C-alpha cells in the first residue's frame, strides 16, 4: 500500500481510554503469566493503533505546515499525547507489579521492565496539563522555524533552501547567505528566548512535581537511560575535549590552507574545496534511482528494503514551501512501514541524510517482529548507531552518486563526522548548565553558549556578527527545544559508527553481519549492552575516543589533499 493511501481518522480518545482500561484490568486479573501475555497483545494493539495515527498526523503536518486540517490534528495530538501517555503508564504500573514478573522476564527480558519502571517514575496525572503545554511550546518553535521566508537571489527561500548558497564557492555569496539566515534568526531572537525560557521553567516544575531534584535527572529517565548517567557522559565529554578538539583545530587550519584564505570565518566553514564541494550528480529522483544500486550492492536485505520504500512512497525528500525544516524517520506500526522526511537542497548533505535516515528505517523494519512497542526501537543513542553506521557502510558505492567528486565526498564526510562531535558535546554541556541553573536569564544562557563554543569550537570566528558573538547560534538547534538532552546521543553513536567504519575497511562482510544483527535486536537491550553485543568499545570507557580517533588520523595522513585543489 502506498503512503498516499494510508488513511487518517482522528482517534476517539474517550473510547481508547475505556478500551485501554479494560485491557489493563484483564492483565491485572490474569491468573497466570500466559494469560497476562495474551492481555499484553491487546494492550500493544491499542498502542500501535493510536501511535500510528499520531505519527501519520505529524508526518502530514510537517510536510505542509500550512495545511489547516493537519495543523488542527497536530494541535489535537499535542493536547492528547499526554493523556495517552497516562494510559501507557497505567499499563507499565501493572507490569512492574505483576505477581508473575519472573516468568514474564524470561519471555521478554529485563529491559522491558527497566523501561516500564522509568515510565512510571516519569509520569503522573499531576503533570498532565504541564505536558500538554510542553508539547504546545515545542510545536510553537517548529512553526517559527518553518515560517522563514528569506528574500535572496531574487527568490523567497526557507532555511533549507538557503543552504546551497551557504556552501557556495563564491565567498561573498557564502557570507551574504549566512548573514541572511542569521538575520531571520536574529529577528526572532526574543521569540526563541521566550519559548525556551518557558520550556525550561515548565520542565523544571514538572521534575519537582515528580520528585526529582532537577529536570536533568528527569530527562535522563525520560530518555530511558537505564545503564549510564550524567557522570558517565562527562567522562565522554572530557575525552572529546582532550582528544578530538585539538584534531578538529588542525583540520580547520588544513581547510583554511586548502581553500586559500588568510582569515577563516564562520561562513567559510561549510566550504571545503576550491574546486567546489562534492555534489550528487542529479536531482532527488536521480538520487533515489542510484541509491537502489547502492543498497542492492550493500546487501540483499537492504536492496529489497530500499525498493519497497521507494515503491510505496515512504519518503518525502524535497524542500518546498510550508514544509517544516530538518529531517526524521518514524514508524507507522499499523502499516509496518517506516517513513522518511527530509529537505533536499542540492548539496552533498542530501545523500548523507538519506543514508542516515535509511539506517533508522532499516532497523525499524528489521525489528518489526517484536510484539511490544518498547522493543521496536532502541533508546535514542543506540538508534543513532544504525543511522550513522549506514553512512559509512555504503562508502564503497558512493561513486554511483558522486562520480568524480567521490574522493572529496569521502574525505569531507569522514572529517565532518569527527568535526561534528565537539559541537554535539557543546550542545549537551549547554543543556546541563541550563537545567542545573533554570532561573538564569536568556542573556546568561547565550553567554554560556558562547563560552562553550570557545572551548569546543576554538577556531570559530563570527566576524563581529553581533547576534552570533552574543551566543545566538544555538537557537537553530531544534533538539534543544523539542528533545532535551537528545543531542549527546549523536556523538556517542558517532564514536560507535566510526568503529564500524574501521571494521568495514578490515572486513566488510563481518562488519555487515554484526550491523545486521544489531538491527535485529531492536530495543531489547540497553545501550551499553547493544554496544557490547556488536563487538564495539563503549564510548564511556576511558581510552575509547583516543583509539577511534587514532585510526581516523592514521587514515587522513595517507590522503593527498593536493588532489582537491584547482589545476
From TrEMBL:
Pfam families: Peptidase_M3 (PF01432)
Domain Peptidase M3A/M3B catalytic: 166-270, 311-544
Cofactor binding notes: Binds 1 zinc ion.
InterPro entries per UniProt: Pept_M3A_M3B, Pept_M3A_M3B_dom, Pept_M3B_oligopep-rel
Keywords: Hydrolase, Metal-binding, Metalloprotease, Protease, Zinc
Bilayer-crossing regions: none
Cofactor(s) needed by this chain: Zn(2+)
GO molecular function, one term: metalloendopeptidase activity
GO BP term (any one): peptide metabolic process
Family stated for the protein in its record: Belongs to the peptidase M3 family.
Protein name: Oligoendopeptidase F
Amino acid at each position: 500500500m502506498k503512503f498516499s493511501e494510508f488513511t487518517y481518522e482522528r482517534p476517539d480518545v474517550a473510547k481508547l481510554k475505556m478500551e485501554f482500561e479494560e485491557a489493563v484490568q484483564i492483565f491485572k486479573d490474569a491468573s497466570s503469566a500466559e494469560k497476562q501475555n495474551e492481555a499484553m497483545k491487546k494492550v500493544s494493539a491499542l498502542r500501535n493503533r493510536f501511535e500510528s495515527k499520531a505519527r501519520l498526523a505529524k508526518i502530514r503536518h510537517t510536510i505542509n505546515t500550512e495545511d489547516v486540517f493537519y495543523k488542527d490534528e497536530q494541535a489535537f495530538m499535542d493536547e492528547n499525547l499526554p493523556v495517552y501517555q497516562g494510559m501507557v503508564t497505567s499499563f507499565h504500573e501493572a507490569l512492574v507489579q505483576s505477581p508473575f514478573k519472573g516468568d514474564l522476564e524470561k519471555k521478554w527480558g529485563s529491559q522491558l521492565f527497566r523501561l516500564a519502571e522509568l515510565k512510571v517514575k516519569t509520569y503522573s496525572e499531576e503533570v498532565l496539563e504541564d505536558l500538554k503545554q510542553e508539547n504546545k511550546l515545542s510545536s510553537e518553535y517548529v512553526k517559527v522555524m518553518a515560517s522563514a521566508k528569506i528574500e535572496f537571489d531574487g527568490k523567497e527561500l526557507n532555511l533549507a533552501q538557503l543552504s546551497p548558497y551557504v556552501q557556495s564557492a563564491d565567498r561573498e555569496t557564502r557570507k551574504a547567505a549566512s548573514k541572511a539566515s542569521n538575520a531571520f534568526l536574529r529577528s526572532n531572537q526574543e521569540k526563541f528566548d521566550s519559548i525556551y525560557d518557558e520550556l525550561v521553567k515548565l520542565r523544571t516544575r514538572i521534575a519537582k512535581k515528580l520528585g526529582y531534584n532537577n529536570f536533568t535527572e528527569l530527562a535522563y529517565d525520560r530518555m530511558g537511560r537505564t545503564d549510564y548517567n550524567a557522570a558517565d557522559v562527562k567522562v565522554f565529554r572530557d575525552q572529546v575535549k582532550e582528544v578530538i578538539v585539538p584534531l578538529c583545530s588542525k583540520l580547520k587550519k588544513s581547510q583554511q590552507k586548502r581553500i586559500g584564505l588568510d582569515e577563516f570565518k564562520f561562513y567559510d566553514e561549510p566550504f571545503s574545496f576550491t574546486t567546489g564541494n562534492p555534489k550528487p550528480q542529479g536531482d532527488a529522483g536521480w538520487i533515489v534511482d542510484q541509491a537502489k544500486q547502492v543498497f542492492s550492492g550493500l546487501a540483499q536485505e537492504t536492496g529489497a528494503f530500499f525498493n519497497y520504500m521507494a515503491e510505496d512512497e515512504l519518503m518525502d525528500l524535497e524542500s518546498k514551501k510550508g514544509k517544516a525544516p530538518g529531517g526524521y524517520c518514524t514508524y507507522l506500526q499499523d502499516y509496518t512501514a517506516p517513513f522518511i522526511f527530509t529537505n533536499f537542497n542540492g548539496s552533498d548533505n542530501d545523500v548523507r541524510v538519506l543514508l542516515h535516515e535509511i539506517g533508522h528505517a532499516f532497523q525499524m523494519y528489521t525489528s518489526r517482529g517484536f510484539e511490544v512497542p518498547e522493543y521496536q526501537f532502541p533508546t535514542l543513542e543506540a538508534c543513532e548507531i544504525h543511522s550513522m553506521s549506514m553512512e559509512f557502510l555504503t562508502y564503497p558505492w558512493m561513486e554511483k552518486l558522486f562520480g568524480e567528486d567521490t574522493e572529496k565526498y569521502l574525505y569531507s564526510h569522514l572529517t565532518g563526522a569527527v568535526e561534528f562531535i565537539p559541537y554535539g558535546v557543546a550542545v549537551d554541556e549547554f543543556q546541563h548548565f541550563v537545567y542545573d541553573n533554570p532561573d538564569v536569564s536568556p542573556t546568561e544562557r547565550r553567554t554560556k553558549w558562547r563560552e562553550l563554543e570557545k572551548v569546543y569550537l576554538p577556531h570559530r570566528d563570527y566576524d563581529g556578527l553581533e547576534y552570533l558573538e552574543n551566543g545566538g547560534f544555538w537557537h537553530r538547534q531544534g533538539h534543544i527545544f523539542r528533545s532535551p538532552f537528545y543531542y549527546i546521543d549523536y556523538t556517542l553513536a558517532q564514536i560507535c559508527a566510526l568503529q564500524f567504519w574501521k571494521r568495514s575497511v578490515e572486513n566488510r562482510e563481518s562488519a555487515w553481519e554484526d550491523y545486521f544483527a544489531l538491527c535485529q535486536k531492536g530495543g531489547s537491550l540497553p545501550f551499553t549492552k547493544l554496544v557490547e553485543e556488536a563487538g564495539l568499545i563503549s564510548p564511556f570507557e576511558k581510552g575509547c575516543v583516543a583509539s577511534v580517533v587514532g585510526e581516523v588520523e592514521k587514515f587522513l595522513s595517507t590522503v593527498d589533499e593536493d588532489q582537491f585543489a584547482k589545476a
